[in-house]
Amino acid sequence: VLYLGAVSMVCATGFYFLLQIPALRDPVQWFEGQDRPSHRPLGSITNPIATPTPPQNEPLQPANSPGGSMAETAVATSEPAPASLAAETDPNAPPQVIEQPGDNMPDDQDEVAEAAPEEKPPEELTPPARPETQIAQLLADAEQQMASRRFTAPASNNALLLYQRVLELEPGNPAALQGIQNIAVYYRDEAEQSLRRGRPDESLAYISRGLRATPQNANLLNLRQQALSSQQRREQAQQEEIRRQKMEQELAEQRYQEQLRQQRTQESQLPWWQQPPSSNNNTGGFNQR
User: Fold this and answer.
1) Is residue 154 reached through a cis peptide bond, with omega within 30 degrees of 0 on the bond before it?
2) 3-state secondary structure of 130
3) pTM of the predicted protein model
4) Which residues on neighbouring strands pair with residue 286, listed in sequence order?
5) What is the model's pLDDT at position 212?
6) Are 195 and 223 in contact (CB under 8 A)?
7) String of b and e for 126-141 (b: at least 16 CB within 10 Å)?
């Protein structure tokens, strides 16, 4: 039932839209269109369209003037029939359409504006101003971080990061370059002191922070080589010490085992009454021998 109802609804909708076609509303137009020729007569195309003119009041001539009647008859016979009259008399002539000059003119003012857009002169781009205020603020913040000894830490707010931002805004800024150099000098001095104290690991940590500021600093690179060599020597010394201690322990164990073996040999050579009592022969303190 639902299927038949849906099919009926679709058919009714199609029949409704079919009746909206103008040709189907008036079938008589089909036969009228077949009677009319598809071509237009040459006279209706070449001759201009005659517009009706109001009748003019001509002066009346006396009826007894034969010259006037003869002249009018000659003019009437000599003038050709206009194309409009020929078209009216011809039943097969197509209807003439009078084109008015205002038909092709756009009605909407927006269309006229779109048809002829006004050309605007190109706007001149003004160069952006240098962020001097921002640079000054960054330098001031960097000085505060230097005073607080926050050279490379914390990662989100430190003196090195602020100086690098200044160089991004103004490459070659002397204050920023000098600040980065001061950071590298500080870590170089700390690394040298740690290396003299015999702490190469701490020295390498300072050198790594200094190389963040100046990756190609020759002094820091040399110190890193020295610290690595010192660390390697210290590790070798530690390994030698461990090996020496292990050898000493093994030697002490060997000496102890040798002494114990000699003692047992001496005890076995004594008479039985001089031998020390053993735990296996003790039976409640009574000697069976």
Assistant:
1) yes
2) coil
3) 0.44
4) 283
5) 94
6) yes
7) eeeeeeeeebeebbeb
SS3 283: strand
The alpha helices in the chain, defined as continuous H runs, are 2-19, 22-25, 28-35, 42-46, 66-78, 83-89, 109-115, 132-147, 159-169, 174-196, 200-213, 218-269
Q: What is the pLDDT of residue 274?
A: 66
Residue 269: predicted pLDDT:
76
Q: Which residues in the chain come in under a pLDDT of 70?
A: 22-130, 272-289
Place of tokens 């150099």: 181
Return phi, psi of residue 156, to 5°: -90, -15
**8-state DSSP, 89:** H
What's the token pair of residue 101? Answer: 């000059």
Domain ranges of the chain: 132-233
Tokens representing 201 are 């690991």
Q: Which tokens in the block code for residue 17?
A: 């839209």
- Looking at residue 267, its pLDDT comes to 77
Q: Which of 86, 98, 100, 85 is nearest to 41 (CA)?
A: 86
Cβ neighbours for 198, distance < 8 A, ≥ 6 positions apart: 230, 234
pLDDT (0 to 100) of residue 186? 96
3-class DSSP state for residue 243? helix
CA 20 vs. chain centroid, Å, equals: 52
The backbone region for 127, taken as left when phi is positive above 0, alpha when psi lies in -120 to 50, beta otherwise, is beta
Encoded tokens for 90: 């011809």
Q: Which two tokens stand for residue 79?
A: 């003038």
Joined together, the tokens standing for residue 173 give 């800024």
Closest-CA residue to 236 (of 266, 202, 200, 265): 200
CATH 1.25.40 fits 132-233, yes or no: yes
Contacts of 285 (CB under 8 A, 6+ apart): none
Report how far apart the first and last C-alpha atoms of the chain are (Å, whole number): 125
Name the amino acid, one letter, at 243: R
pLDDT of residue 83: 46
